[in-house]
Each structure stands twice: as C-alpha cells, then as structure tokens.
C-alpha cells in the first residue's frame, strides 16, 4: 500500500498538482473575539477546487477554493457569547478554541496608541485589577512592505486580559475596552495595529492616493517596488503605504465594529494638508473593508510645548488640532479632546485612563445609542456685538463652566490688523463674551491656539473640555506645506 501511495504522490507532483493544507490568516487564533450581530467573514487558502467548511456554534457554511487557492465565506450573525470552537475543514482540519462573540475594535495610530499599560499612571493597580476573560488583545507586529500583503508577515497571538498579559496591551485601547465591557456586558476584542512616530501617509493605500487630486501626481513618483536597501531599514515613514500594506491590508475583511485612532504629532508640520490626508485615510479604510461607514473615533492632540507655537508666531499643533476637528464632518466620526490631560514636557502623557474613557463615551453614545454625555463644547458660531464678540457652542450640556479657577484662560481677540491680544472672557448664559479694551472693532476670536495649551479651562457641566478653535480663516504657518512622500 505504501508503494502505491508513493507512486500516487509522485504522479501528482509530476502533473504539477500540490495538495495544500487549508489554512487561515494569522489574525485568526485561539481566544479571538468575533464581531456580534453582523455576518462574520472567514477566509483563507487551500488547494484550488478544495471543498472547505467552517463551523461555529453548531452552524456550518461551505465553499470551494478558487483557482488561486483562495476561499472566503460568511457565517451568519451571532449574539454575544461563547466560548465557542471555530472549526475549519478541508483536506485537513483546524480547530480554534475559546472563541468569544462580542465587539471588535481596531486600535491604530502612533506611539500614544501603542503606549503600553505598564508605562502609564496608576499602572500597578490597573494591572493587578486587569483579570478579565472578556477582554482580548492581539498585537500586530511592526513590519513594512511595499506591496499589499494578503496575510500578516509575522505570527500574532490573541491574549486574554490578565495581570501577566495586560502590561503590554495598548493602554488607551485597554481602558476603552474596560469601559465598554462594564457598560455593555459583552466581550471586547482589540486589534492593536500601531507604530510610534508614524505619519498618516504610511497608513493609506496606494489606490487611495491615486484617486486623490491632491496626492495623485506625487504618488506616481513613488515606485511600486522599493529598493531592498530601503526596505531593510524598516522605516515606516520612508515611503507612503508601507504600513497600510503590512499592518492594515492583512486585517481586511475581518468583521469589526469600528476603529479608534491616536495620531497626528508626526503631521503637525503639514497640518493644512492633514485636512485632506486624514479623511482620505478614513474613507480608504472604510471603502476597502466594505463594511459601510463604520465608527471611527480619534484623539485630538494633547497639550505639549512642541515648538512653542502661539497665535503670534504660528502654531503647527493648533492647526493640526483644527484639521482633526474639521474631520468631524465625515459621517460616524468622533473626537476626544485631551488638552487638559497632556504634559507640557512629554509628548507621551501618562494619563491614558481618561483618554480611553473619553473615546468609550463617544462609542457608548454614538455606536451603542446610550444617553450619556460624550463631548465637550465645540465652537458653533460667533456674533459681533459692538466691541465684544459672543461665542456659541454645541455640546453645552447643562451649562458652560470654568474648570479649576474663577477666570477663563486661553481666549484671544483681534481686529483687522490680525494681531491677537489676551481677552477678557466670561460666561454669559449659554455663550462666552469676549473682549479687550484695546480692540474696539473685533473681528475674530481664538481659544487655546497655541502648542502647549494645558492651561485652557472651558468645560461643560459634564466635565468635558472645550476643543480649541478659531473663528477666523487667516493664513496659518502650515498653509501650502506638503509632506514629502518619498526620498531615496
């Protein structure tokens, strides 16, 4: 019998037929969380024409691998629950254990998203209390590629939240998940695909750049295949799309609820262009995931001395915050303001608890339809009243208030000369009245329009800080500046 089996194998090889084991993307594994209440995408590879079946919670779906050995199917939506076993059957069988059904969120951006729980304020106590079987986390390894990858380039592992595992979790993501789990009572899965110091352009696909009037000409100068010497440097900012290719494309089309994002520091010098590049990335991910305008919630830059920018000298960080605020015009987006919890001397503020909780407040209100406050005051409109300007806001809640003092800090006012001067500002009912005795004919107001604005103190009654803003459209210091996409 062994002789005949060997002859059969040799015959198949001579005909160019190779029997491949059915396999799944590295994103799938023991302890993973699958998205509830939506069709669950499962995909992988097998021999061309091979029959493949996937079973979950006593439901089975079948398909056949195409000529390239690729297969994909959808499992019917499931309610939150588990643990279940996911079984994939082809010429071989794969069994994934301890699979939960709940809410899945992608956590991405640069270092403030990647920042580990062990390096934050209150880490010791938080880690001791982190045992929670319903919170799961997978860290995507930091790798670059000049071509879109159909699978992760390195192994990745879903880990339960335990005092042994949680220290390396994304801190913002962990606190976000903890709050959601407390309020919703369902499992939360975090896909942590982040890399410190990265520009937004490296997270965008080449096709998105090619479809953009702003970036189309510049992306044509970037070769599709980059020199090996450049790739070997493992620098994600050396060319666009490098992290999209290796750390986002392999996640698609895993069924998710949404994404949380903390990035922008590396784009402050080209903040005006971020008005286009950031929405381009969000739309790109949504288009390629093909799961509709899924929730995308992001963190506005915290206070930091950066370049010491002000209204007088120009502030790149203020302009980047403005670009982030403008991105709220996209559907199903939300922004957590963090000026009050920054650190003037550290670009990595250690308070990640409030960041995660503020993102969770947005998700609880917008995604999960709870009636909770979730935003600080956002500039709505202005009205000139003789030598004063009235500023009106959305998200006033039950009233505006001064946090940590008796006087409002951070308001400036200017006339036709465009020279901003410190303003007297006071709360009058549901608006702020702003003035300066030296500005008799005011035209514009700015609030928190400087890099290190940790002192600004306008909040609403729910305890959320107001976002920095300006009422003018005068030219800023980053207008016309473009991010260099490629240099080699």
From TrEMBL:
Pfam families associated with the record: SASA
Domain of life, per lineage: Bacteria
Entry-linked InterPro entries: Ig-like_fold (IPR013783), SASA (IPR005181), SGNH_hydro_sf (IPR036514), SIAE (IPR039329)
Hydrolase in keyword set: yes
Keyword Hydrolase: yes
Signal sequence bounds: none
Chain ranges of the Sialate O-acetylesterase domain: 103-362
Keywords from the UniProt entry: Hydrolase
Entry protein name: Sialate O-acetylesterase
Provenance organism: Albibacterium profundi
Lineage of the organism: Bacteria, Pseudomonadati, Bacteroidota, Sphingobacteriia, Sphingobacteriales
